[in-house]
Amino acid sequence: MKTYExxxxxxxxxxxxxxxxxxxxxxxxxxxxxxxxxxxxTSLEDFLPFRHYPAVEDFxxxxxxxxxxxxxxxxxxxxxNPPATNETRLVKAELECSGRLILLYRDLTLNTRRDRxxxxxxxxxQQLGHVDPKFRLGMIGTTLIPVRxxxxxxSEQAGEQLLLGFWAYGETLDATMQNLARLFxxxxxxxxxxxxxxxxxx
Length: 202
Hints:
This protein is α/β, with parallel strands linked by helices. About 30% of the residues lie in helices and about 30% in strands.
């Protein structure tokens, strides 16, 4: 499937990990799904109104996989923008939905190594490039964002995380959500491949 690298305004201000509050919602907070996986299905406000769609269950299953005790990765943040008028010229469709998933290594030290986080971004591009090549109504974009890891010594906090932006399109609400489900299944398959490569020491 199609993947892209973010080419907009650079992310200059580092996020904190763990984080609290956001530019749009001061009450937003970080949830550690590795410690409390049961919160995946109850704490993601953006997804709750659409939980009757299979796509949302696919996303919950993806989060459970990435935050599983045996996973070398975990999630830091996610968001969902529901289907609305498609304003992009890249895809001809009436509706578009979008969102993000932010990932990091479970071993915090690796997130402070630029080579390892850059490898993670490249690995997702490679894995996704082999998945569902005929799919044209969904895409994923990557960017590395600066992060301060508060659990590390102050002089060793600077690092990064991988932001996966996603977009799905369709002529109707149901069709858009079906394409979103397909996108999440593709991303899950790519995640399996990337995780296996990390465990094998790639």
